[in-house]
Amino acid sequence: MPTLKKVTVFLRASLFGAVLLHTVLLCTGCRSAEDGRTVTINSKNYLKTQEKLQKLLANQSLSQETRYAVVNQIASNMRAVKDYNSLVLFLTGWVESHSDDMYNAYWLLMTADAYLANDAEPVAEYYMERILANYDDLMVKGRSVHFLCLQHLIKISDKPENRISYFNQLITRFPNDVNITELYYRLALEYEKLGDWTQALKTFRLFLDREDAPTIQLQDIPNAYLTAKQLVDFGSSSKNWTFETLEELVSAVQNAIANYDYRTLDSYKSKVNFFAMSWRQDEKDANSQDSFSMRSYMRGNRIRYEKELDSSISTPTQAYLRTWGWSSYLNVWYFYFRKVNFPVDPDIHGRWEWAGIYYGEKL
What we know:
- The protein has helices at about 15-25, 45-55, 65-80, 85-95, 105-115, 120-135, 145-155, 160-175, 180-195, 195-210, 225-235, 245-260, 260-270, 295-300; strands at about 5, 135-140, 145, 275-280, 305, 320-325, 330-340, 350-360.
- By secondary structure, it is α/β, with parallel strands linked by helices.
- The strands form 2 sheets. The protein has a 5-stranded mixed sheet with strand order 4-8-7-6-5, with helices on one face. The chain has a 3-stranded mixed sheet with strand order 1-2-3.
- Helix 2 (about 45-55) runs antiparallel to helix 3 (about 65-80), helix 5 runs antiparallel to helix 6 (about 120-135) and helix 8 runs antiparallel to helix 9.
- The longest helix has 17 residues, at about 65-80.
- The protein is elongated, with a radius of gyration of 31 Å.
- The relative contact order is 0.06.
């Protein structure tokens, strides 16, 4: 694992004055590109400033700290006028010809940032990967270069295997700078995309074990805790309530209703994540989870069911059976069947389960 070098840059008073003077000359009558406003530059002054800095940089007696300040100012000036081509050529050329420069990781990060500014994300990803693989970390202006790279890479990479590596590095290397609970959940999703269900379930368990998991709010993932819990609970269950085909499941349920056999009907209900709710509720809502017995609703009532599934709302992976006679205030119940989506177990994946009940007529 790369070692962290804490770097503090000390500018000599004379150099600081010179750089400050050049910066003032450069920015006279201009506004910084950093704040998104239009930049107007006196080209003559800009070129003169850059020329002076390049001559100063050619001085072989410069200290490492002074050399850093000059390189950084040249690059910053190029970025201020959005001269990204020159910026990339200057920084990559510098890194290639000065392999001993302890700030090379930072120069390459600036290079990657230039590519990001031009929407060249694959090239930016290449440079940040190069930094992580070949350069020790360092702190510049109080920020870790490796941490910044990983943050960017998480946003721009679309390959699950790469994102898995980035999430793991953030968790192991920067545990105090990230929300580990959230990263466990997002890491598990990447394992899912890759088809590594064993690791996905293991990581979801790590997420569930976190103290703040039940209350965490993820912006783009509603009900994260309940979703993970349902998946993990299903993976740990016997799954002996599933049927090979939808036809077998529906026939068994209909026979149990016809015979008023509540015990058998109860045995067909999913033992994990079974819900009973109105059509407007969300099955992942904790209030929709229900483990009641059918006995109290079947006794004394005349229960009926349609002979066929409701084709208007059924799909290849979901099916609905209309039943009625359950109570005077909630007479109609739709039994909801779904195909099991659990690739981690090929013997279970693709079977069918009775997953829940919707109260009332369909919307």
